[in-house]
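Thread amino acids onto this structure.
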């Protein structure tokens, strides 16, 4: 099949690779424009653009595809049989959706209709979902509202962070898309309703009670409130990896890895923290207080519930530290308070 691929972040690269390795004819790749990143604010191409160039593919970088009719016309001239979309980052207009004879198909990183929208992986972690997955969905004008062709779930571990989970889901997306393409091709072109009927898709509107939206995360969402429970804070850290932060002294402290010291979660915790369970009572210390340091493990901090272990963190101006190095950086004795914003240190 002749495929027009749409994608931007690392998440989309495994699917692009899989399509190329499977021998499909990639007539073009559409991705977000280069962005200025890092301290030097240099223009950096998206991971998908970088990989497309390596593969020798034609690349298009619309600022807003909805408002670029000339580019839409150029894409139509590629005469693709199908569009494959994975984390592109813009909503496609109806004219673009309607052009390929076999339709536009999206690999979405959630179990639809749960977590439609921009941040499904992060929100599945922040919300404490026990499982997530990937859906291959026929695209329509609504935000991730199209009927689903294939769907597969995976479990979420207590210690999974968003980067690890995204990596697993990205490869699942690639595998499911390769599985879906022969089915779509066999159904053939024709009226959309007839094609969809031949494919036996599952409409999402029969699950309206399960719809949730993964809104864009903000910097405010990254600020740790130590009055929350240990489990809520841990989910925030894992979901916002590696941007959740607090304040240490007058410096920002990014928290990269934690473990909530909750007895009922013993089997999901690392064995080296088991001896810390039950060592401190709930509500005996001010939330955010450093209670102790444990060699080879990290710093124990009080919360609004059970304590939590900070295993890996980054003090502003320093590199990522864990274990004894982290302890040395934060070793100021008991009573030091971590606070919820860098603008109001205690």
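Threaded sequence (346 positions):
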């Amino acid at each position: 099949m002749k495929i027009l691929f749409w994608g931007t972040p690392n998440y989309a690269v495994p699917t692009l690779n899989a399509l190329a390795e499977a021998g499909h004819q990639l007539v073009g790749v559409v991705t977000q424009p280069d962005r200025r990143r890092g301290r030097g604010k240099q223009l950096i191409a998206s991971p998908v653009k970088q990989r497309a160039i390596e593969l020798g593919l034609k690349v298009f970088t619309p600022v807003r595809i909805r408002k670029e009719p000339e580019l839409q016309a150029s894409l139509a001239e590629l005469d693709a049989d199908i569009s494959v979309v994975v984390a592109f980052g813009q909503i496609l207009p109806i004219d673009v959706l309607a052009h390929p004879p076999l339709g536009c198909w999206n690999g979405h990183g959630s179990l639809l209709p749960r977590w439609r929208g921009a941040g499904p992986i992060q929100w599945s972690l922040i919300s404490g979902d026990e499982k997530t997955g990937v859906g291959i969905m026929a695209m329509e004008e609504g935000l991730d509202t199209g009927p689903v062709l294939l769907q597969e779930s995976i479990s979420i571990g207590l210690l999974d962070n968003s980067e690890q989970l995204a990596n697993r889901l990205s490869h699942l997306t690639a595998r499911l898309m390769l599985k879906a393409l022969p089915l779509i091709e066999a159904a053939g072109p024709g009226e959309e309703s007839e094609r969809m009927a031949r494919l036996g898709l599952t409409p999402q509107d029969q699950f309206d009670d399960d719809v949730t939206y993964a809104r864009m995360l903000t910097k405010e969402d990254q600020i740790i409130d130590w009055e929350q429970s240990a489990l809520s804070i841990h989910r925030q850290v894992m979901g916002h990896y590696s941007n959740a932060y607090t304040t240490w002294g007058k410096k920002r402290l990014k928290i990269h890895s934690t473990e909530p010291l909750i007895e009922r979660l013993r089997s999901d915790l690392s064995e080296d923290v088991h001896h810390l369970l039950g060592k401190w009572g709930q509500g005996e210390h001010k939330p955010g207080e450093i209670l102790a340091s444990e060699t080879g493990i990290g710093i124990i901090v009080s919360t609004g519930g059970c304590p939590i272990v900070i295993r890996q963190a980054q003090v502003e101006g320093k590199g990522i530290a864990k274990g004894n190095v982290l302890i040395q950086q934060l070793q100021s004795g008991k009573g030091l308070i971590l606070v919820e914003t860098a603008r109001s240190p205690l």
